[in-house]
Amino acid sequence: MSCARPWTYAGSATRTTVEPTSTCPLEQRDELKSSLTPVDEERAAVLLATRELLDRYRTAPHAATRRWESAIVDVILRHGSSSDARALLAAFLDDPRARRRLVPVFARHGDLPTAERLVAVCVDAGRLREGVPTEVLHAVGYLGYEPAERMLWDHVEGPYDEAMNACLGLLHLPCRDLRTDIAQALERHFGVNLFPEFLPVLATKTGDPSWLDKLVTWGEGGASTDCNGGLILGIALHGGRARTAFTQLLWNPRWEAHGPGTGSDYWAYAGARALGLSMAELYADLVARLESDADVDDKRHCLSTFTALLGYWASRPWLGLRSAPDPAETCDALLDLLFAWSTPHRDDSLIGLAGQVLDSDDRDLARLHELENELHVRAVHEVEVRSLMSRGWKNRDRNRQSANPWRSRRAAP
């Protein structure tokens, strides 16, 4: 599909201005003021990044490289709004296969009408249309579109990406009518080596609290580490009573929670966020294990897991899980917690502790040095963003006052 007309950006809008003279009738001022508000505010709310992306799609689609598009979408995810989602939806529907990276924007900044539109265009007879990215399943569920529950369930045992996104979408829906189906599917696969990896994240939808212990047993028994991601997240989603089991699996080599190849490290980070674990808690746990009489291999594993988690704590990818918000710690706070020396005479920071266990050329030790530098860069960026946002709010307030000077004049005696 295509837009009936190209998106008009704020910079190209024709803006009517009115001199605040006392001869302008009050009703005329109110009429002009109201004529400026909806369209101008909607256009102004769209990020510059969104405008650049739409421009490139329209005028130079070959220049919208994967790396550039990913960077732009990351900015929109972090700083965009519903206006950006609305502006990008038509562009996505025009070529869903090529513009799949836009889908998280619709999930994070969209609404129920967005979900309804995605289903209407992207689904046919209860299945995704050919060429539609499977992330649409996740987005529709994340937006709380309950009429899609059965359609999502019908994708749960499909190909990997399809099944994963369907399960992640169902996480955000009540699933009352699916409770029996979910329980039966879990029982059917329980204990086997290979299974639909993300089916276990739906265990809490059954209403049966015994599934927490069953998931732990499954992961420590017959489950392949290739299917760990859904078990790790599924355990964490049981909430506070799962904290002990979750922290134990993080440090248990059997779970390979540090594994980037299987994605276990990503889902371990998601689980930690779902449980609200802080970096201070995880670091205290790590230090206790490094100072224990555990063997060196166990300590190396703990450092690998912690290093993987810290990487995600620094980059903070959007997880698409309402129960798993970004960490509360600033990058500056992480630097103080992990990399500061308590004395100038000895390195007792994370790097110093790691150096007592790891060889000087160990890749995890090298990664910790990289993360220290990355956190420093991100800490500076955090200050820049706060400063620019503060300036932006002040400028917006001044512009509004300038555009509507009769507000103060009407209040004057």
> pLDDT below 50 for ≥5 consecutive residues: which ranges?
1-37, 407-413
Annotation, overall tally of beta strands? 2
The largest pleated sheet is described as:
2 strands, antiparallel
Radius of gyration: 25 Å
Through-space gap between termini:
55 Å
Which sequence of strands runs across the widest sheet? 1-2
Mean pLDDT: 88
Q: Strand-and-helix sequence, N→C?
A: HHHHHHEEHHHHHHHHHHHHHH
- The fraction of residues assigned to DSSP E strands is under 5%
The total count of helices amounts to 20
Look at the helices and sheets and give the structural class. Answer: mainly alpha
- The percent of residues in helical segments reads 55-70%
Coarse morphology: globular
Q: Would you give an account of this structure?
A:
The chain has 413 residues and is an all-alpha fold. The protein has a domain at 47-174. It is built from 20 helices and two strands. The chain has helices spanning 26-45, 48-59, 66-79, 82-94, 103-109, 112-122, 135-142, 149-153, 160-170, 179-189, 211-220, 228-236, 243-251, 264-274, 279-290, 296-315, 331-339, 350-355, 363-403, 406-411; strands at residues 123-124, 127-128. The protein has a two-stranded antiparallel ribbon with strand order 1-2. Helix 6 (112-122) runs antiparallel to helix 7 (135-142), helix 12 runs parallel beside helix 14 (264-274) and helix 16 (296-315) packs parallel to helix 19 (363-403).
Set down the secondary structure blueprint.
Blueprint (H helix, E strand, L loop, with lengths): L25 H20 L2 H12 L6 H14 L2 H13 L8 H7 L2 H11 E2 L2 E2 L6 H8 L6 H5 L6 H11 L8 H11 L21 H10 L7 H9 L6 H9 L12 H11 L4 H12 L5 H20 L15 H9 L10 H6 L7 H41 L2 H6 L2
Antiparallel strand pairs: 1-2
Helix pairs in contact: 4-5, 4-6, 5-7, 6-7, 7-9, 11-12, 12-14, 14-16, 15-16, 16-19, 17-19
